[in-house]
Design a protein that fits this description.
Blueprint lengths: L1 E3 L5 E4 L2 E3 L4 H11 L8 H9 L7 H19 L3 E6 L2 E6 L5 H13 L5 H13 L12 H27 L3 H14 L4 H13 L3 H18 L6 H12 L28 H6 L5 E6 L6 H12 L7 E5 L12 H11 L11 H13 L4 E7 L2 H4 L10 E6 L4 H5 L3 E4 L5 H12 L1 H6 L1 H10 L4 H13 L5 H11 L15 H9 L4 H10 L6 E3 H8 L3 H13 L4 E4 L2 E3 L2 H14 L2 H26 L24 H18 L7 H17 L3 H18 L2 H17 L3 H17 L3 H17 L3 H18 L2 H17 L3 H18 L2 H17 L3 H18 L2 H17 L3 H18 L4 H10 L2
Parallel strand pairs: 6-9, 6-10, 7-8, 8-9
Antiparallel strand pairs: 1-2, 2-3, 4-5, 11-13, 12-13
Amino acid sequence: MELRLFGEVQLSVDGGLLDVGTPRQQAVLAALAVDAGRPVAVEMLIDRVWHDDPPVQARNVLYSHLSRIRQLLRKAGENIHVDRRNAGYVLDVDPDQVDLHRFSRLVELGRDARGGDVERAAVLTEALGLWRGTPLAGVRGEWVEQVRESWHRRRLDAIVLWGEVELRLGRFDGVIGALPDLLAEYPLAEPLEVLFMRALHAAGRDAEAVERYGVVRRRLADELGTDPGPELRALHSAILRGDLPKPGRERALATPAQLPPDIPAFAGRAEELRSLGSTAGIIVVSGTAGVGKTTLAVHWAHLARAEFPGGQLYVNLRGFDPTGSPVAPGEAVRGFLDAFEVPSAQIPASLDAQVGLYRSLLADRRVLVVLDNARDAEQVRPLLPGAPGSLALVTSRSQLAGLVTEGARPVPLDLLDDREARELLAGRLGAQRTAAEPDAVDEIVVLCARLPLALAVVAARAAMHPRFRLAALARELHEARGGLDEFSRADQATDPRAVFSWSYLQLGAAAARLFRLTGLHPGPDLGTRAAASLAGLPVGVTRPLLAELADAHLVAEDSPGRYTCHDLLRAYASEQARTLDPEPERHAAIGRMLGHYVHSANHADRLLDPRREEPPTLTALPPGVVPERVADHGAALAWFRAERRVLLAAVHQPVEFDAQVWELAWTMRRFLAHQGHWHDEIETLTLALAAARRLGDPIKQAYAQCYVGCTQVWLEKFEDARFRFSVALDLYRDADDLVGQAHVRYYLCWMLERQERVAEALAQAEQGLDLFGRAGHEAGQAKCLNAVGWFHALSGDHEAAIVHCERALELQTALGDQLGAGQTWHSLGYSHDHLGHHARSIDCYQAAVDLFRVTGYRFSEAYTLMSLGDAHDHVGDAGAARTAWGNALEILDQLGHLDAAKVRAKLENHP
């Protein structure tokens, strides 16, 4: 027996087909079959079958269809029937007897990298063979259309996966033979075009692959008015250059181990730990604030980590953070790619492509993904693994019903029972101490409402004072309850504010003030110097205060010198600050915090980019601020990486801090751009632009517009970038700022070069040169002289290129601009090489290499070494060519850059 939903709805028994009834009855059968084995509520069945136009007696009509379906299924045998349950109607059938469920199972087997490619190809071929046509053909309705669209997407994904496996097996002829019909069926599916071009390339038919790209480009332009996407364009360029990476040459990735430290003296939750025993799929742990969701998830993750040799990923999504700034899915995905140490050059620009890369990495690994403190299902979905083998463990105050409906397993977490609460206290205070005062323990449990976070705070207080009787602590806690309102963010059955206030009241005055001020910090963590600046205290005074807070369990030192705070505690700290600290003092504390980050980031940014323009005059450093002073480029990069999420949160401030917000965006922009955090950069610059508008500063507005445009160039949103550049140019022109106008012209020429519009790029570079000249800005003149020379070279006018580049080099040498000179020496080498002046070309390239090595710009050094090797090859010096290429390859391999494959091919072709 087989129930078929691909093509017309059919029920096959012993090789014959049974009459499945009218299209409406088929819709009812399909509405049950897509969720075979799971209850479907009556309301959902009605919605799927009739949507907005149900009949007057919809339930009665539905029951009539169900009655006829039951009669039909009796003819099919005992292995399929419809049952009525409390939650709805269930089609009880082996999923393998429903073609779409069998398709799903086979595709998941095909994704599992633990099986060999031969086996994977076989199951994927079987899966694709089940497709008999458009799903639910002959049935109409909005839900049916959604099902069709979903399964067409799944089929496309399966085809691409099958093709990739077949290409790895060297069976490119089969892929080439199958794809034309599929491309006719899906004429605008770019992943199929990518697969087809790769197959043609694998078969040695590069000319056909290039021709195919032209066909696709024209079709997309005619039908959608768009260009091919980044992946298709990159593949086309790689085929033209002859530098497609070869299988087996991929850079080895890191195995992430991001779990926070396990919780000592974990107690209770035996039933929940058993529920978490599965090591694949999606699990949602839900419960009220402070109930111990993170503690449980992290503890179980440490117990199960051996089951996940591919690594363990962790992110706190801050879904209910009191600052109101949850982690965006794009930020979390980028963090996971960084954890695998994917080189930034290999990380695509769009979120969808980054999610695709992330899931591709997980497809070949067994990875544990802990998504802590999720706000809703939409925040979680992009972070879920796309293939079996890995496990996503999600915690949230919400039940995330959408994920559960889609198959996630719920593990609801309630308050501890009395026994578990006593075990928690005994584990932290010692069984002997708690056994000596059982009545006091029981009273503490009641006063803490069995909430684990509250119990942990009390246990910390008791552990700090081992001579205190628990009965005395219980009396103190009882007295702290008087006159306190219900804590707004907690479940109505709990009152953690009493526990927090009781612990807070035990602090010394200085530590209590520091705790209140942490409520003004945006989080998610803060370093020792940042805390000192927030409080306006010396670092030596601040360290013991932080230790006092950690001993009281009001903050946690998750890594040396960096402190985190539970969001309930941060909300409580903020509440106390608003109650006890006058507004001027709170305003001053925020000002000190922003001053700390602005001046620390400015110092680090100068080390990252010594060529940068000097910033506008920064807001003066407030008294008592202790900014970071990192020593070198590596330390600056590490500081930005550690503080990135703090900085991104810190730019969300009230309007009275607009000046510091703009300055903070200015200091962090280059780091975000150079590391490829383009979406973060756009968000930050957008906030800076709004601040600049409120400040009425057109120069600051122009800066933000210009660099939003630059980021959009990286994202290949050229029309958006052109608009931003146009606005920036007008603002700079109205302010009579020649240097600003010149910078915009320079970035315009870069955008046009990326669009292969060399003549227009040259015109913009010449305008930039004129503007820099009129402003007397020599460094800018030199930069644009080299750009003008480069575009002349790309146009084939190498004599003119040399004239302009030599003028640029003269200026750069006088200014001591080593990096700029290195770029100009490269341009000169390119032109001399194309004029046949190979000896001169070699000298130019070598000068560029030497300068790039001194300035530490390794990619530019590698890129020039590639050109140097080519120049040596042109004069027949194979040994020198191999040496240059080998040095380039070493650098590119260290950087994990895709161009390493191109250099490796040169070495393989020149033994």
